Structure formats: C-alpha cells, structure tokens
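Section 3.1: Structural characterization of target chains.
Under the original work plan, the team committed to producing a structural model for every single-chain target entering the pipeline before any wet-lab resources were allocated. The record below documents one such target. The sequence was received from the expression subgroup and is listed exactly as submitted; it comprises 622 residues.
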Amino acid sequence: MHEEVLPDVLWRSRRGLCPNCGASLKLADSGREVRCDFCGGSSQVERRLRKLEPEVAEQPLPKPQIKGATRWIRLHGARERCTCPGCGGEFEVGETQQIVRCTNCGTESKVEARMRALTTETVQGPQRRTRADQQNQHRKRIEYPWDVTTEMLCWRVINEPDPDTRLALASCFESWGFINPTTAHFLPWLLQQVQRDNDAVAAAIADAVGKLLCNEDESLFLPVLQAAAEAMLDPQGKRCIMSEVGLGPPIGIKPLLDAAEVAAARGQRDHACHALWGVNTMFGRNFPAHERMTEVVLYRMFYLTGPVLGWAVYYLQGGCHCGYTHPWVKLAPMIDEFAQERPGVAKELRRCLLALDAGSGAEYRTRLDLLAAMHTPLARVAAAENLGKPPGGDPALCERVVNLLDPMLDRPDEVEGAVAGLRVLIRDTEAVPDAVLALVRRRGESLPERVKREFRAKLPGSDLLDRSKVYYWQSEPKPPEDPEVRKLMADWDAGIRATVDHEYKLRDSLRPVRDAARERDVPIFLEDEPPTIPLKPEPPPPPPRPRPVPQPAAVPRPQPGDDDLTSRIMALQQEFAEAVMALSKRAQDLTITEAQRGKIMAEIQQLGMNLQAKIERLIKER
C-alpha cells in the first residue's frame, strides 16, 4: 500500500517551508503570497517547470483521497510565463495546466509550485555625502530616506585606504546611534568589506550585525539576515558574522544551518562548527522559541550530513544545556518518518523521546492514536516504551494500551517496547488494571521475564503466575546506537572544541588593536564641500485672489412717469452686468498671466465708465 511506503504526512500536510527562517508554513487554498507566523517574512509560490519523467507502472503512487490535496495552492492570474527546461524558451502556462508542451522544441514539462523568498531589488550603495547635506537634513530642507551621517560613515569605512583610520571609523558601530535602518540598508556593502578586510576591521563592522538583530525594530531582522546569509555562505568569509547572527532572534537559525551545511559539504569542518556554535548561542538566548526552532532542525535532519548531523543529534539528545524537551506528539511521528528515510538517525532519535506523563486524557489518547498509526517497528518501540501512565488510571485507556501492546509481544523486533509499556501500567498505577490482569491470565508464563517480575513485585500473592518460580532481576536494555551517527557526533565535538579555542585566541589578539582604535577621534565628514542631495522644491505660490469688480457710479433715480427712460437704463445695466460677468470668469483663470489679467480688469473699468456716460446722456436728452 502507498501508506506503507510513504508517510502520509508528506502528502497530506499541505505545508511548505519558509525560505526565510525554515519554519513550516500552512499554505492557503488561494492567494500567491504566504506570510510566516514565526519570522513574519512574506513568500510567494513560484511556478516552475520540471522535465516530465516516465511513469513507473510497477508501483504507481495513487492520488491522495482528500479535498484539494492535488494542488497546494491556486495561483492568482490566468496565465504565467515559464522557461522550458529543454531549450530555455519562454511561453505562457495556464493556471489549471499540469502538463505543458513547449511551443519551440516540443519538450513536455510538469508545472510545479515552489516557495521563493520575497527580496528587494538591488539598489545603489552608499554615496559620499557632505556636512552641508547633514545640515540640510537636520533643517528638514531635503527629502531623503536615509540618515546622511550614517551613510557617510558606511562610505568612509568602505573607501578609506588607511587601515588604522578605517578601523577607527568601523568602531563607530559600537554606538547605538548608528544602529538604524540606514545601516541595515547598506549592510550588504559593509559585509563585502568584512570579507576582504583584516580581522580587526571585520570584527568591528560585524558588531553592527549583532546590534541590528538585537534592536527593537523587528522590521530590520529579515533584511539583515538576508544580507548576512550571503556573506556566511562565502567559503573564505569571516566567521565573526556567524557569531553576531547567533546573538539575534530565532528566525536566524535557517541561514546559520545553511552556512553550516555548505561549509561541511566543502570539507570546512571548523567553518561549519562555528556556524553551529552560533545556533547554540541562539538556542541559549531564545527559550520561548525552542519548539519552533527544534522543528526547523527536525525537518532539516532528513538531509543533513557530516558534523552538522552530529550536532543535530547532540542537541536533540539534550545538548546545548537548554533544558528543553520536544513535545511527545511531535517527536514520535518524526521517528516513524526517519525510520523509513534514515534508520540510523531514527535509532538516535529514539533516545530523545522521554516518558513524560501526559497532561490530560485527551493528550494520552492522541499518543495512542499515533502509536496505532505508526508504520515501522522502531517507531512503535520508541512510542510504547515512552507512553507514560494513563492519567488517573482510566480503565478504558488502560484497556486500549494493553490491546496495542499485546500483539507487539509476538514480534521479536517490538517486544522490548511492549515490555516497557506493560511495566509502566503495572508499576505506576495505583491498582493493577483489569486489562493487565486479563493479559496475565491469558498469557501466563509465556510473558517476558521482566513483565512477570514486575507483576510479582506488585501482587506477590497472586495465583495468576506460578508461585514456585523465581524471576531474577535483569538490567534494563540500552537502546541501540548507530555507529555512523556516533562518529559524526564525535567529529562535531572535536570541531567545536577547535573552533572555540581558535576564536578565543583571535579575540585576545585583536583586543589591544581595537582598544587603541577607540581612542582615535576621526571625523566622519571630510573637508567642507557643496551639498550632494538637492533641496526640496519650494511650494508653488498660492493663486492670486481676483480683484473686486468695480461697481458703476450711482445714477439719478428716474422720476414717475419716465417708464421709457427707466426701461432703457435697465437694459444698459443688464448689458453691462453680463459683460462684466464674462470678463470676471476670464480673470479667474489660473492659466493666464498677470499682464493678461490686468488688461481684463482695465476693460471692466472702461465698461463701467461707458455705462455711466450713456446713462447721463439719456437723462440729458429727456
């Protein structure tokens, strides 16, 4: 059956791994973007093409029988452009397409969805700034997103030719005043300087990494870690960056483990152990996040090798002095998966599962459900010997435990777990459960020696076992060890000792040089120069208010009986009012010049004078 070959968690979980911190992500039914609840970073599901492989007729993998499992996520957008793995040509792929054929070469490909990090585009590095720029920014005369003084410090550290002066400038990062978004923005260029500079300057610049990761502004964490990740993957890179990343938040565990894996693959054991030393420091400084960090380690153990795998096993078995125990319900299923993928690792993980009593009946039932669903004998043994006692001696739970352990007694590779589980039921319950009594009555002397001895010690007067027989004490069997994994653990132990000794010697040698650099007073800005950042444009002047329209002079009121004169005067006034209104609208137009507006006002005044003259002439003619 498919379930016996591939653990269902691998195709039922609907989860991806965050490309920023390595934690598991719950993928939604729709939407391209996914936000990690551990590090807060955003990721996108990216569609790629993989060359179509022939189907294996002998053992086809059936589709999972749950809703939506064939697609992890439905992407927004009807079509996307993908690159052909055969010829490299680009063509569009529809949202619902699973198998596509290249229009150029005819290669058939399978559409896959993968997670990729959302990163900012490459931007310009720090530029040379002047004191005038600093003063203009202080007076808010420029619009610039970065702190000018910090940018100039970054530029000086990168471009200063004298090593002593460069060290004095780099020591400025010990001040929290230079730990800000500007330093985080230009950190990639600073870390490039770390890689090519001497150890003293490199350590001084690297101080900024640790401070940025210990800053209260959490929005800086991911950009800093992304910049540091690239530097830590450099085979010739300075190890001080790893030490500083280890001081930061728990989301930095992924880039540190990445650096360790890459270094181990190159044969650079000490470089890998230094990265793992940073992980140890991170565990010691982030107790509330131990569960999520441990999950990151567990997921990666499927493909870890060398001293990195040795460290992971060392940590899970109680190393690093963290005093943390991974939850039973999460570790036990992982042992089942490892037993199929990497049996040697599963043997060592069996030592990590502790028989802690369940906090409630519901939790204990969950343990029993997991035990019943396990696929491998090794996982069933690990779970059975660490089940713990049923809460309150619940008879129903005790009966279910016995029903699960009874068939394991007949399997040579599982009997050890069944013995341990039955001994707990007998020894740690107030009264021997009825289900255990029924098992002893049914199996009698065929039970394993240690079970019978435990039962005789609890019920010395019972007739269910032959009272004439003596059951001698037997030492507890030790869980098997994997020699290959043990060798890797020893390699890790030797590597971390050599790494710590080397680092402490280096720090002692750099201390007097760095102390002397702190005493030097080196100005950040060079000689006075004109500003390099343009000033903010002056705001446009407010539009001028229209001048008041001159009113015509008062005219004599017509006498009674002058109806014809009155109507003629009213007609002249109506004509004047319409002309003035039209000219006033033209004067309020913002697109005309002041000269044009003056001509309009003069024309209005002339109309008023003309109206006055016409009215006076009419009155005289009366």
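The first strand starts at residue 15 and ends at 17.
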